[in-house]
Specification:
- Helix 9 links the parallel strand 14 and strand 15.
- This protein is of the alpha+beta class and 672 residues long.
Length: 672
């Protein structure tokens, strides 16, 4: 896990025709937290191309594995962030093909030789891992950027004044004062809905993020060409012949056995490390599965880490985590935090997020990551991705019931009648209750012919935006991205439902007739998981120089679960039915069947105390609401109603606080 950056002079200059090294050093060292163990820069002889790297040494700790790294004749150069779990097998294959390696077991060097042997497409097809990397091919004068299949590792890019820039973090791109700092209105609009900016946009105008499972090539003329090389869709994980003739218990056993085999193999692969590793343990089924299966593969105790709250103990899962730690004899560590801890952390939070991520889990995640680092652990396995694949969220079950008992019958009504009903509901809703707001919004989706499910993480619904915003926030389109092959068109719409509509239109065209849950999971993989949860994990763990690994998002496991129908994932109305079946006898029954709490924080309570007053002052004093047409009276009402206990507006308020604090720091240049 590292930080990467680079520059290409396309048709402009960077400080004349001088060396790129000073600019590369600035970009590189703005991400020192991502790589405290080493640093490097390289520029081409013609000073047109430069690569930079910050190293968090995890695999092959020798100096020979330092980056940027090249082949023997300097034709291919790479800067790489991530881990390639099958690098030893690829190394053997490349050696058999005649390639000679200089390092003992560096996975980075596999990228160099793999590119020379198979090209970028052949290389990506073979990689098993999490990654974001850049390869400069001097013979073709082409720069290739690639991001892993699920989007575990971030990669941002920008073209300005004839210079193409890329980096693991936006702050590295912003080290150049020539890059303007401005808000992208469309990104702001969709952030209010989804708690994050959907790819390829970022909250910064003209700074973009490469979508998951994409490769982008920049040629010698400065032309970009991008394409997707994978997608989270059915049809890749289970051979139809393997389940032919299976029914009932036999089919269930096949699914459960396949899940367990793939999960155990994924955890085993993610133990690849030359430095100490452990697990973030909440005591829920996902993190406990990591502990249980890892303990089978280790001779020493697993290092486990848990965070709790001093001031709101009702949210703690410490007892469950301790039971799992005792069951599997781990070396267990705990940290307790309270409101005063978050007040001291907020400035660093805004800085390390780069763009706002309205997920307050970032706060406990920071403190448990720091705990791991202080204990000498650099690599941790986490449970992200399980709830999405196996339907672990209460909201999933709500949407499935809603789709079955209301949505499908309601869609049979003529569109005109649906519009009348939606309009009538909206006229009486006012600001009465969250439940009524949702009814109004769902009726509106039906009337507009939109999808029912947008995301399981949804802050401002359309009905809320209508009250909050005095004007629409739209985009002008991004012609260069579209020409390159990155679909950004739907993001220009004022209605955030267009984002999901476009995703599912493409999915349904290629995979017609799929069940509702499979369609929901596809959206979550591309939006909430890839751009919110995994960016939360990357940015916060790496701010502590810790690498997070996600075995539930192993390619083989994801492809397998995408082929399992809804009826088996929620059999009998039970969430995570198949995962629970797979782990029966491995985890204690009290852990498998305990009620889901979720990794959270007492933000609702904190916003009713001292932090709430600070947050309100920060939001109301920010220049952003006036600039983008926010109704300040509505914002005051949100704070007032929450503080007085009339409504739980915590998610709306945290979303607004993150946005305005980001704007004050990154756009207005104020300290947070």
């Amino acid at each position: 896990m590292c930080g990467i950056a680079g520059l290409v002079r396309v048709n402009g200059a960077l400080e004349g025709d001088g060396s790129l090294i000073p600019a590369l050093v600035a970009m590189r060292d703005s991400m020192a937290h991502r790589g405290p163990d080493g640093k490097g820069c390289w520029e081409s002889e013609d000073r047109r191309v430069g690569l930079a790297h910050r190293r968090l040494a995890i695999v092959d700790l020798s100096d020979a594995a330092a980056q940027p790294m090249s082949d023997s004749d300097g034709t291919v150069w790479v800067t790489f962030n991530g881990e390639i779990y099958n690098h030893l097998a690829l190394r053997r294959e490349l050696k058999d093909a005649g390639h000679r390696f200089r390092t003992d077991h560096s996975d980075t060097e596999v990228l160099v030789h793999g590119y020379r042997e198979w090209g970028i497409d052949g290389l990506l097809e073979r990689l098993d891992g999490m990654f974001a990397f850049a390869i400069w091919d001097a013979s073709r004068k082409v720069l290739a950027l690639a991001r892993d299949r699920i989007g575990i590792k971030p990669l941002y890019f920008c073209r300005h004044s004839g210079v193409f820039r890329f980096a693991s973090e936006i702050k590295a791109i912003l080290t150049d004062p020539a890059v303007p700092r401005a808000v992208e209105p469309s990104a702001l609009n969709h952030y209010l809905s989804y708690l994050v900016t959907p790819a390829p946009l970022t909250m910064f105008k003209d700074i973009f993020k490469l979508p998951p499972a994409h490769v982008l090539e920049l040629d010698s003329g400065g032309r970009m060409k991008a394409r997707a090389y994978w997608d989270s869709v059915p049809g890749m994980g289970i051979d139809a012949a393997a389940v032919e003739g299976l029914h009932g218990q036999g089919l269930e056993d096949y699914y459960a056995t396949g899940i367990l085999e793939r999960l155990e193999a994924a955890i085993d692969r993610r133990m690849m490390s030359d430095v100490p590793f452990g697990v973030f343990l909440s005591g829920g089924i996902d993190s406990s599965a990591n502990v249980a299966l890892m303990s089978r593969l280790m001779e020493r105790p697993v290092e486990t880490f848990t965070v709790g709250f001093k001031d709101h103990r009702h949210l703690n899962e410490l007892d469950y985590a301790q039971r799992v730690a005792n069951q599997f004899k781990t070396n267990h560590h705990e940290v307790l935090i309270e409101e005063k801890d978050i007040l001291g952390y907020l400035g660093d939070l805004i800085y390390h997020q780069d763009e706002p991520l309205a997920d307050w889990v970032c706060i406990p995640l920071y403190f448990v990551s720091r705990l791991a680092k202080e204990a000498g652990v650099t690599v941790v396995q986490v449970g992200e991705g399980s709830d999405e694949q196996f339907s672990g969220y209460n909201s999933y079950m709500m949407y499935l019931r809603l789709h079955r008992w209301f949505w499908r019958p309601f869609q049979c009504l003529p569109r005109a009648i649906r519009r009348v009903l939606a309009s009538a509901a909206g006229s009486v809703a006012g600001n009465r209750s969250p439940a009524l707001d949702r009814v109004v919004d769902i009726l509106g989706r039906s009337a507009r012919g939109q999808e029912l499910f947008w995301s399981s993480a949804h802050s401002f619904w359309n009905v809320h935006k209508d009250r909050l915003l005095t004007r629409e926030l739209t985009g002008d389109g991004w012609a260069e991205l579209e020409e390159a092959g990155i679909n950004a068109g739907p993001l220009a719409a004022a209605d955030s439902g267009a984002v999901v509509d476009a995703m599912l239109a493409s999915f349904d065209g290629a995979h017609p007739g799929r069940d509702m849950l499979t369609r929901m999971i596809h959206v979550e993989m591309k939006l909430r998981l890839g751009e919110l949860l995994l960016m939360r994990l990357d940015k916060i763990t790496m701010s502590n120089s810790v690498e997070g690994r996600v075995p539930f998002l192993d390619q083989g496991l994801v492809e397998f679960t995408m082929d399992i129908p809804e009826a088996w994932k929620v059999r009998g109305g039970t969430k995570k039915h198949l995962l629970k079946k797979a782990l029966d006898g491995i985890l204690p029954a009290e852990i498998i069947h305990r009620p889901k709490m979720g990794f959270g924080a007492p933000m609702a309570e904190w916003l009713r105390s001292g932090f709430g007053h600070e947050a309100e002052a920060g939001v109301m004093n920010s220049k952003l609401p006036a600039e983008f047409g926010f109704d300040r009276d509505q914002i005051r009402a949100l704070f007032r109603d929450h503080r007085d206990g009339r409504r739980d507006n915590a998610l709306h308020l945290w979303t607004l606080f993150n946005l305005t604090a980001w704007h004050d720091h990154w756009i207005n240049g104020k300290a947070v």
